[in-house]
TrEMBL record:
<feature type="domain" description="HemN C-terminal">
    <location>
        <begin position="1"/>
        <end position="42"/>
    </location>
</feature>
<dbReference type="Pfam" id="PF06969">
    <property type="entry name" value="HemN_C"/>
</dbReference>
<dbReference type="InterPro" id="IPR010723">
    <property type="entry name" value="HemN_C"/>
</dbReference>
<dbReference type="InterPro" id="IPR058240">
    <property type="entry name" value="rSAM_sf"/>
</dbReference>
<protein>
    <recommendedName>
        <fullName>HemN C-terminal domain-containing protein</fullName>
    </recommendedName>
</protein>
């Protein structure tokens, strides 16, 4: 849809999700990433893996997640 290869573009983010998968917090259902009921409280943590700008701005301040 946007002219990118999702798995290649987000390769680093997808690698970072392995820990969530191992803990049963997220799972792949076909091409969709689903957050389990147990993982819902960590939705923000999952989304942060896909944020290309997080941590790139010098002296950036973000609210903390648990």
């Amino acid at each position: 849809r946007h002219g990118i290869d999702f798995r290649r573009y987000f390769a680093d983010a997808l690698d970072a999700l392995h820990e969530f998968e191992a803990d049963g917090l997220v799972q792949w259902q076909g091409a969709r990433l689903r957050i389990s009921a147990r993982g819902r409280l960590l939705t923000r943590q999952v989304a942060m893996r896909f944020d290309a700008y997080l941590g790139t701005a010098q002296n950036a301040r973000y609210s903390r997640a648990i």
